[in-house]
Every structure is written in C-alpha cells, then in structure tokens.
Amino acid sequence: MMSAVNDTKFNSAVFLLTGIPGQEDVHLWISIPFCLMYVISIVGNSVILFIIKTDPSLHEPMYIFLSMLAVTDLGLSIATMPTTLGIFLFNSREISLGACFAQLFFIHSLSFTESSVLLLMAFDRFVAICNPYASILTLPRIAKMGLVLVLRGVAVIFPLPFLLKQFRYCRANVLSHSYCLHQDVMKRACSDIRVNYIYGLFLTFFTVGLDSLLICLSYVMILKTALSVTSHAECLRALNTCVSHLCAVLLFYTPEIGLAVIHRFGNSSSHLLQILLGYISLLVPPLINPIVVSSLSASSAGYVGVEPYCVLDSYI
C-alpha cells in the first residue's frame, strides 16, 4: 500500500510558487509595477526588433546581435510572466510538475543563450575597434553563430527535465520563487540529486562562468588596443562604444552568478535575498536592455574605428 502511494506521489504532486513572503495582503498592489515591467519589456524589445527588421541600413552585425538579445529578453519575459502575474493578481500558486519542468527548461536555455549573445557582442565590439568590420563578421557567419548559440543553450539544458522527472517529490513542495528554477526544484526531491547537483554546477561554470571570463578577456584586449592609440579623443571614443554593453553584462551576470552561488552554497542566507536576486536576474535585464542597446547604437553611430593596429594581430 505504501509503495502505491509513493508511485502515485509523482503524478499527483504540484509545486507551490512563492511571491513575496509576508506581503500577501498587498500582492495586488505589488502586481502593478510587475505588470508595468512586463509591458515595457515586451513593447521595448518588440520595437527594437521592428525597427531593425524594417530599416535596411540596420542589417549589420551589431544590430543583428542586438536583435538576438531582444529575442532572448522577450522569451524570458514570456516564460516568467504567467506564473509571476498569476501569483500577484490571482493568488494562483500551484503549478504542475510538467508545467514547472517546461518553464525551467525555457528559462535556463534562454539565460544561457543570452549569455552567449553578450559574449558575441563583446567580440563584435573588439572587432569594430580593431579590424575592418565586415571582413570577419559577415552575415553568413553571424547566422551560423546564432544557430550554434541557440543549439548550445538548448542542448545543455535538455537533460535536466528528464533527470528531474525520475525523482520522487516527498518533501515540502514550496518553491523559493514565483517561477521554477532547476536548482530550486531539485532540492524538493527525496531521491539522490548528486548527478543534478554536479551537472548544474558544471553548467554554471562552463557556460555562464566561461562566457563571463571570455568577455573579460575581450575587454582587456580592447583596453590594451585603445590605450595604444596616440589620439586621446579616439581612445575615449573607442571605449565609449563599450560602456553600454558593459552595463548590460554586469546587469546580467552579477545577479545570475550570485543566485546560483546562494542556491548551492548559501543555505543560511536570507530567503528574501534569494527572491530579490531572482527577480533582478530575470525581470530587470529585459526591462533595461532596450534602453542600454539604444544607447549602444547611439554611441556607435558613425564610428569608423581606430587605426588598424590590433592586439589580435600578434596572435594570428
């Protein structure tokens, strides 16, 4: 009889999502800024995609990368919006296991894809400053890069829902966020989660961690190249094209890495801190990136580049 209960536990179980603990009475008021954030994110990124698509003069590498960033931001907003607004507007906390696994798949795959896009944008900044622009980043190469980064984001996350599906969930089913994350869901299992733990840690270090390291390396090389320019004005102009992208990088990686570390190593940390970092990591970048990329486009408009000296030349 006990075995039958355990066997049916998985099929009937649901997770309970969390809004902001202790603020349930004002969830309806809290929903107002969340609704505004989602509307601004969706409209802002949609406008960027529309402008880039309809203006032939913007069919260049930099703007194609911006459109990739806008698509991933739209995806993240759409993936988190139903459950987040469901909690704050209708107090709908329950989510089935299947829906939860699907949501975490899209959230994590889109997050890794956005990390790849930011890496490509860093490389784009380096090429724009150091080399003839179109000689390296041709449209066919950009299309291949985009396909590869999407496949990477999907492939590395694809095993996770199937691994989670094998577990029995007999512990407290209350999740820490208003959406599903792998590191949060796996802690609710009463099975051996070592494979998920090690694989999740591997993904964090060798996707987000590696991408952030390569971005730092790109900017070290950009800085070295810019400082080699004799003209102080050209040096500042070159570095100015990177400021907006750096803001987008910091906005994405700081809460993303912080949340991953807290979930795995910060068991004694404040639960409110986890919730705050979760909202920042998934809601703020899609909201701010349209502003950031508009600034990036403005600062890069008409930029010809510095003299054809490049640090990369010494490595070729």
Automatic annotation (TrEMBL):
CDD domains: 7tmA_OR51-like (cd15222). Residues 44-293 form the G-protein coupled receptors family 1 profile domain. GO terms for molecular function: G protein-coupled receptor activity; olfactory receptor activity. Pfam families: 7tm_4. The keyword Membrane applies. Belongs to the G-protein coupled receptor 1 family. This is Olfactory receptor. It comes from Chelydra serpentina.
